[in-house]
Amino acid sequence: MLIIACPCALGLATPTALLVGTVTTGRTTLQDVVPASGQSRDEVLRVAGALESASEHPIARAIAAAASEAGALPDVTGFVSTARLGVTGVVEGRQAVVGRRSCWPSTG
């Protein structure tokens, strides 16, 4: 928020606000992977990265980029993207889902 009380404040506040504002790279990056109990961090990242590499979403791109830095990604078949829910597909013969819990297949 910028409050201006006089013309001099405008001359000082505007450049100061611009200089001390948040500086970002403008790119989304993956910060951490927290796998479910019994799952390998590397395997979760590899499968999620493979699946997300077929997506155009900015967060998906960040996941795929982080996964590809760790190694080659497997192929994906049957890729389906559902708006606001996530993506599904088959990776190495296994059904994979990345997204909101409501996107997950029912387990009965």
Description:
The protein has about 110 residues and is an alpha+beta fold. It has 3 helices and 3 strands, in the order αααβββ. It has helices at about 5-20, 40-50, 60-70; strands at about 75-80, 85-90, 95-100. It has a 3-stranded antiparallel beta sheet, with helices on one face. β2 (about 85-90) and β3 (about 95-100) form a beta hairpin. About 20% of the residues are buried. The mean pLDDT is about 80.
Give a quick set of tags describing it.
108 residues, elongated, alpha+beta, 3-stranded antiparallel sheet
Number of strands: 3
Q: Going across the major beta sheet, what is the strand order? A: 1-2-3
From the spread of the alpha carbons, the general shape counts as elongated
Order of helix and strand elements from N to C terminus: HHHEEE
Task: Determine the mean pLDDT.
Answer: 82
- Rg (C-alpha, Å): 21 Å
- Sequence stretches where pLDDT stays below 50 over 5 or more residues: none
Main beta-sheet strand count, sense and barrel state:
3 strands, antiparallel
Question: What distance lies between the first and last C-alpha atoms, to the nearest angstrom?
Answer: 51 Å
Structural class: alpha+beta
How big a fraction of the residues is strand?
15-25%
Helical fraction: 25-40%
Helical element count? 3
